[in-house]
Structure formats: structure tokens, C-alpha cells
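Hello, quick one for you while I still have it in my head. A protein chain has come my way and I'm curious about its shape. Can you walk me through what the C-alpha cells say about the fold? No rush at all, and the record is pasted right below.
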Amino acid sequence: MPDYMFLLESRLSPEQRAAMMRMQELSAAMGFNVYLTRYDFNQGQQASILAGQNLIPLYSTLGAQNLLNYVQNGHGFSVSSSYQLRRSFARVGITYRDDFSSIVTQTTAATNYFEYINFSGVSGPNALQGIHTSHIIPSYTYNTVNQALNPTGGHSIFFSFDFAGSVLGGNVNTISPTVDVKYFKTSPLNRRHVLAFHGLASMIAGYGGKEAPPFSRSFMGGEQDVRGFDWWSITPVAFIASSVNNLQVLNSDGTARTQKTTVNGVLTDTPVTMSIPIYQLITPGGDMHTVGNFEYRIPIAGPVTLAIFTDVGLNKILFTNQLKMVQSRVDSLNSQFPQAAFDGRVVIAPGTQQPVMSSGLELQVLLPVVQAPFRVYWAYNPLTVREYLQPPIVADRSFFPNAATFNSAIIQYGQAYPYFQRRDLFRFTVGRTF
């Protein structure tokens, strides 16, 4: 038995100890949930809603068709149970969840990513229907934090292991462990001040020849992890093999080449187009992310607290060998464009997986009605991603009728994209980072 538990029980009366034992004997909990969901994910729009300002122009600098926009419809159920261990601050739990999803893509990047990444063993449009994920999730929690809203001491540890696979009846195979740790103590400089620490690490990986679904990968940014960045803006950026079927063919002087065709019985000049291989920019999300948060909390008056904070985060593709296309799609592209020699691997843009950091000041006001703090904060980001993202060029010059058409293709599909994360942020929000 831990020393602090022995001291706790030694200070209780016999009646209080008996009541504590009865509570521990009844400390099992169960839950059942049935759900129907529709999730419309638009990177620029959702980030704007959550941030309270228009961020669509910022996201559009990557190109509207390069964003991972999609609609996910789902339904399923979950059953959970947990039990408080006797004479302990620990609780163990287990959850079973059965989920059925379908995806409707809204952009070229989302179509290429969802249809041709090998996460369900099916390629093409059929990969977006009948996504069945059957999970079992054991968990362990140890919590000695002394207050829920304004803790001044104690620590908590949470660990879970999400296992999904065909052995449970689904067609998605993943494992995903998560560890979350919090620690609070009074400051040695002033007993009214509080030092608060938080760390989180999580990863997801496919197995059995399958990969993690795109919608299960991690995106970071916002007041829930690294406060100085926009919502979902912390993500690796990559390029996936694709093709364009309507590139305008030009004459040597740069004018559009046309040909005579009959349209509705009328002879008409129509543009001449051609197909070329390209690498499409995507924001795939990470398969491993870590977050570290520190706050020095200074009570001002009543429900008002000033916090000096630092957040550090890393969102990374750890299993690069798993982020690859289904072989049938690779074979189709290579048969059409032999000179491209696609290998099926997604090319990660250099510099987009480095750690990021925010530091700043936060004013917290506890709202008694909602039992959560209203927060105003300013953050400066000393560590950001500031890169020009250059897509690989796989179209051979000899494939084009002239230099003008080749240069036009490079301008449209081979230009570097500016990707500069913001340096500071001022925001209002409700709730805690941790």
C-alpha cells in the first residue's frame, strides 16, 4: 500500500473507513453508447470557426485542391466498463467500439489520398465505402490530483492501447498506444503559485499489410496542445503520385493549340489536351505525435489567474514504409507513364516534421456556470516550419511536343508552395489546455 494511502486511512474514523470500503466495492462503472455521425472536414473552414477568424486565405496558399477536405458519415456503438482498484487511486477500464464509416472526398488531394492509400486492402472508389473498424481498448488511470478545476498538487497517469483488426470483425488493422501524464506542485518561490506540467505521446500503426486510415492520423495546433498555432496546422506535408488529364497543349509560340471537332453538328475549335504524371501535394497527418506543456500559474484575485506557459510539440510520420499506395494504382500510373517510374511511396516534404514551440502569457478567469476557465492568451512561436515545398518533377521533357507546353506544365504543377507558419497568435477560448 502506498504511504500516502496508509496516512489517509489512518486519519479516518472507523465509520469513514467503512464508508470508503463500501464506495470502493461499488466503484465499478459501465456505459453503452449508440451514435450516428456526419463529419464535414474542411481544413480552412474548420480552423476559421475554431479560431474565430478567417484562416481560409492562409490555407489556400497551399492550393484549394491540395487540402484534405472530405465528408465522413458513420454509425456504430461502444460498450465500456471500468473498476476502481481497492485501496488505490488507480482505475482500470476496457472499451469495445464498432464503427462503420464512408467517405466522400471534396478535393483532388483527398481523392488521391483516400482512394489509393492501402488502409483497408481495397483501392479506388470502393475504398471509401464500408470502412469497418472494430476496436478493443484497455486502459489504466492513476490519479492523485487534489482538485479538478484548479489543482495545486498531485499527479495523474493515463495509458491506453487501442487494438483494431480483422480478428474482431473489421477491415482496418491498427494498433495505437497513448500515454498522458500530468503533475502539479506548489512553487518553491511562492506557496500560492503552482507549477503545472503535462506530457502526452501517442502513435498509430497498421499491421497485416494494411495502413492506418487517413482520418485516424494526427493533426496538431490550437489551444488544446500547442497554443500559438492554428487548428490542425501542425502536420507533415507530403506528395503522392497522381496524374493530370487535361493539360492544355501549346504551340511553340505559347498560343493554345486547337483542333477541329464537331460539337452538336457544328465544326468547332476545341483545345488540345494531354495527360502528364505529377506528384499531388497532401497533408497526411502524422502517425506519432508528442506534446509537452508547462504553466506557471499565479493567482491574481478571486477566480482570476495569470499563467506563463510554454508548449512544445512534434507531429511526425514515424513509419514511412507504411505510407504507400496500393500496387494496382502504382501499376496503372507506370503503364501510362513509364518514364515516371513511380515506386508507390509517399514523398515527405523536407522540413515539415520538425518540433514546434509556443511561449506566452494567458489570463484565466474561472466561470462558475460552466465550471471551466475563460482564457485570453498571446503566444509567440520561436520554433516554426518555414519552407518552400517543392513537388518532385517526374514528367520527362521528351514526353512534351515542345518547350512551351513543358514549361506550362512546370509552372502549373511543379512550382514550389510557400509554407510559413505564423510567428504569434492572440486568441480567446474556454477550457484548459490541461
Notes: The chain has seven helices and 20 strands. Confidence is low (pLDDT under 50) at residues 1-12, 14-23. Residues 185 and 191 are 9 Å apart (CA to CA).
